[in-house]
Structure formats: C-alpha cells, structure tokens
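Illustration: Vacuolar protein sorting-associated protein 35.
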Amino acid sequence: MRTLAGVEDEDKWLAEGIAGIQHNAFFMHRALDANNLREVLKYSALMLSELRTSKLSPQKYYDLYMRAFDQLRQLEIFFKDESRHGLPVVDLYELVQHAGNILPRMYLLCTVGSVYIKSKQAPSKDVLKDLVEMCRGVQHPIRGLFLRSYLAQVSRDKLPEIGSDYEGDANTVMDAVEFVLQNFTEMNKLWVRIQHQGPGTVREKQEKERNELRDLVGKNLHVLGQIEGVDLEMYKETVLPRVLEQVVNCKDKLAQYYLMECIIQVFPDEYHLQTLETLLAACTQLMPTVDTKIVLTQLMDRLSNYAASSPDVLHEFLQVEAFAKLSNAIGKVIDTQLEMPIVGAMTLFVSLLTFTLRVHPDRLDYVDQVLGACVVKLSSVPKLEDARAMKQVVALLSAPLEKYSDIVTALTLSNYPRVMDHLDDGTNKVMAMLIIQSIMKTDSCISTADKVEVLFELIKGLIKDLDETNAEELDEEDFQEEQNSVARLIHMLDNEEPEEMLKIICVVRRHLMTGGPRRLPFTVPPLVFSAVRLVRQLESQGGDIAGEDVPATPRKIFQILNQTIEVLSSVPCPELALRLYLQCAEAASDCDLEPVAYEFFTQAFILYEEEIADSKEQVTAIHLIVGTLQRINVFGIENRDTLTHKATGYSARLLKKPDQCRAVYACSHLFWVDDPDGIKDGERVLLCLRRALRIANAAQQMASATRGSSGPVTLFVEILNKYIYFFEKGNPHITPSDIQSLIELINNEMQSDNGNTTIHSDPFFTSTLRYIRFIKQKGGLMGEKYDPIKL
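Result:
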C-alpha cells in the first residue's frame, strides 16, 4: 500500500526504481547478446520486480512502467528467435511460469504468449483465455491495471477476428469479443477498487489519480469498437448488455460517467439508434451523482449529426420512435435526480429540441412538447436566477427561430410564450430583440391578427415596462434601438384584406398604448402611417368594405387615428402629434372627408395654441400647417377661410420679426394654388406680401436701432422672389411697377447700409436680378411682361 509522501520522496523512489530497471536491463542485454536463456530470464524477472512497488502515484508508476516496457520489446524479439535460445515456444511458455514472483511471471508470460500466438502452434483464443485468466493473480489495483493494459497492448494485433491471421472457427469473432470483455471487466473492477485504498482523508487525491488511469480501461472499449465482424446483432445481444452490466453494477460515479461517455463515442451511430432503449434504460440506473445530462446530451448530439448526415437515415428514427424514447428518458432523469440544478435540466431540453428540429422538423407537436416539458420544470422553480440556466432558455427559444425561415411557424407553438414568461426582464428583452431580428432577416410578413397577438405577447418586454423599478435604468441608446426595432416591426405587419388589416392595427394599438410616455413617440408614428396606408388602399379600391365585426371604412380608421394621436399629444409630445394630425388631415382630404380633415386641422391648431411654446418649434409648426393646408383642396369656402385666417394670424404673432415675415409671405400660397381647380385670389396674395414687406421693414428698423446698421436685405429679396413667382403665375394684382419699386427699395437699403460703396453685394439679390435679365433677353410673352422693369 502506497502511503502518503511528499513529491520529493516519490521522485526519490522513482529514481531508485528506474536505476534498478537499468541495472538489471544491462545484465539482461549482456545475456541476450550471449544467447543465455537462463540469465535472460533471471535478470528480466529482477528488472520486472521493480514494478512491484506500491509507493508511487499512477503518474510516476507509468514512467517506471514505460522503462520496463521498452525492455520487454527487446525481450520479445529474443523469444521469437528459437535459434538463439534453442527452446520450442511451447516449452518456453511453460518455463517462464516458474518465475518466483507473480508480477514478473505474468509480464514474461504475456510476452511469451504473444510469441506463442504468432507461432500459430496453438489457437489464439486458447492462449488469450489462459493469459486473461492467469492475470487475475495480480489484484493490486495499480499493478493489475498496468499488467492488463500490457496484455491488451501485446494482444491487439493477435485477436482471432475476421480477416486476421489468427482467425479461428465460426465463433472466432465471439472469442475475440469474449477476451476483450473479460479483460475490460477485470480492469474496471481494479480501477474502481482504487477508491477504497487508504484513509478517507486522501479521497480527493485518489479521485484525481483514478481519473489519470481511466484511459487504460477505456482502451478496451475502443478495441471492441474496432473488431471486424461485430455486427449489430452481436452488439445488441452480447457486447452492449455485458458492458452496461459492468457500468451499472460498479456503482461508481467516475467509472459510470467515463464508460458511458466511451460507449457513446466509440460505437457507430446506427448501433446507438437501434439499441436506444437499452442505452437510455442504463442512463436512468446510473448513480444520482453522475452527471447524466452530459451523457444524454452527447448521445443526442451524435444522433442529431447522424440524422443530418443523410436524409436516407431519417426513416430509421421513425421506426425506433427515437423522440418518444429520448423524451421519456429525459423526463425520468429529471424526475429522479432531484438535486440536478435547473441549468442541467435546461441543457437537456436544448439538446432534445436540437435533436427534434434536425430529425423531425415537420413535427411541430414534438417541438411544442419539448417546450411544454420545459415550462413544467421552470414552474417548479420559484424564480429563475441562474444566469447559465437563463442562457440555456434563450438557446432553447432561439432554436426554432433559426430552424424555421418563417417566424410564423414559431408563433404557432402554444408553449413558446409560456417559456418566455419565465425569463427575467433583461433576458426577455434580449429574446424579443432576437425575434424581431429574425423577422427582419427573413423578411417575414405577419398577416393575421391572431398571429400579431401572439407576436406582441412575445415581445411585450419591449412594449411596456414589466418591472417599474427598472424603467429608468436602461441606457438611452439601447432604449432607442429597442423602440426603433419595434417601429420597424410594425411595418412588417400587412394583409391585403382591409378588414383583417384593420384588426391587426387594433391589436397593435391595444398593445402599444400600454407602453408609457417614453415609448409612444417611437411606436405611434409607424402605427399611424400603417393606418394611413390602409386608408389609401381603401380609397384606391373605390369605397368602404364592411366586415362582419369591424367595418373597415376610412371614417372608422380616422376615428381610431384621432384617439391614438390624442394619447400621444398628452404624453406630452405635441410637435410629433401635430405632424401626425396634419398627415391624417391630408389623407382625409384624399378620401373627400371634409369634416374629418377639418377636425384634424382643429386638433393641430389646438396643440399649437396650448402646447407648443418654443419659438423654433412654433416656426416649424406654422410652416407645416401652411404647407399641408396649401395641398388640401377638399375644404369649402367657409372652412378654408377659417383655417387660412387662423394660419395667417398665428404667422403674424410669432416672436421674431424675420420669422413673422417668412411665415406671412408663406401664407400667400394659401390664396393661390397652381392647379386648374385651385383657389386663385390675387388680391389676398398681394395683401399677404405687403404685410410681409411691412414686417421686413420693421425688422430692418429694429436692427438699425439696436446695432447701428440695418443689416442684410435678405428678407426683402425673399419677398421680391415671391412677387416674381406670383407675377409669372399670372396674378393680375402683381404689376411690374410693384417689382420695380421693391428692387429700388432694396438698392436704397443696400446703399445706405454700405455707405454708397458697393451695390448688389448680396448674392441672393444679385442672382435674382440675373434671372430677370435672362428672362428679358429670352423674349417671348414672359420677356415682354418683364420689359417695363428697369434694372
């Protein structure tokens, strides 16, 4: 028994052992050179006696063993040459059994036995059976393991398998299998016994040492997997049951885990598939401390890869009902191993789902069944806090998205949202983003209200705050990216049937309205534009289309839009709400719904009056109002006069004079629309331009009073261009004399400001004059109109 000792002591003992081997090997080689059999056997036995030590760890013992092994190769060469030692191999086989100690005797016997088999003077199976039986004489775990490892190594190329030089009768393959199985069984027993050597205080060290020796045992299974002639029937009836019997009965955590891993790796995939029930039954009988999830995961991964290797093998999975067997086995393992952490169960479900998606991609019921089992397990946990388990759940939910190019397929899985409900808020958002990215990547179109309902339930983590305490913690850039993704998603919802599209819009609106003031400015605009698109679709089809439940009419849609934008205006986000009101007003005009368009304009003006206080925002809003009103031709005289009066009144009350001026001359376009049926009130156009001119003059005077100079004449030049525009459009109230007077006014302003030094220094004014000259030189009717103007 090896006692506890320091590394230095072990190094010393190893050095002594190596020295003993080298010393005796020297005399053995001298005897080999002299062909002295007696001396060869004497010194080889003394050399091999160094392997009887119990003081070395497995790693150090291996070093010592390899020194002896190198010498045994030389010894085998000597034994092969009968002319050198003069003794028949049969007699030599008897002779070496007279060695004094059993360990040297067995090494010598294995070496001579190898030569004996090669001589073919006795059947290979008889010699191998004799050797494997006699090796039982060495029961020390480490010494016995290395001895049997030596036996396995020297006999590997001498097994009586099919096609071998040592092939025997009809049962030859069974003889080879029996030898390897017997050697494997004895080696595994020795390996397991190491844990019972010495006091319990060194148990951890012993486990580490045992782990270092595992390959000695596993090599036997590798040999079994390579024996020619081991067909499926023999594997099913003999090999696997014998190996699994040893695995289950050894009751050792390390041995069971390693040997199951070996079985899965060394034998063919088709064998695993045909013996799946037996293999899974063994998994459920393993010790509770064995990490069964890794074993099962490796098995499912191999079977998944096998299924993916060729479509021809898929029918085999159906014949053996692979999914049902795997699903039942995983359920039993999870139920019996009560201490299995939640991450272990989730890992098993991920592997089972991967297997299902590869083998049975068309069986959505199988996929949903796996997700349902996951829900049951997650429901047994108060709260999922393990980050690794959360990562596995995300992998579980991501697998269907990656497999099915159409996200709609995943939406039909009833247990999918139930799994997502168990994610924390952060992970829920990550998963929601993955779903949206999958839709964008595949350019999927969600076309029914039911599927939209399911989809928005899945991504609810992005649409509303699931936990109010975390509402303000999200980085602003990340928050904007999330909401922009939701906005893009809304544009992917479409249906050619107006009734169904209206249902989709109502479903989306119901979900978005729960988003709170931070989200609505991102999500309401795409919803509004989707609804406006539906309105224009209805208009192009020439009227209303009534459904059984919800009439898909423009008027009904505009009611929904009005309610939606009203919520946005109370966020508050008045500037955005005003823009959306104007968009809806223009759409209502296209549908010839004057009262609806007037109501949207009314709401826009109310927002302007009550909510928009910033002067820059007011300027932008006025120009938007004027531009939209100018394009709309649905209003009657009374309504149009009311709206234009409001617009011009607001324009004249802006804070800054330049802003007032520009807004007022922009209002001139409200009275002259360049369409055949458009309004053309030249007198009111002139009134607007003169009013703008007065405001510009006042702005110049204020600039002169405050800065000592009148400043640039840009406003006058801009008004001049408006005069020219309406003059060319045929407004009879705009005359050449008006343009002439304005040019002279600008010249005078520039001369007074520059001290009579430079005239026409304003580039805008210079370009305007150049245009007038060009038109005059061009001639024609327009040129004649410009003739009275003198530059």
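Reading the tokens back as a structure: Residues 123-267 form one domain.
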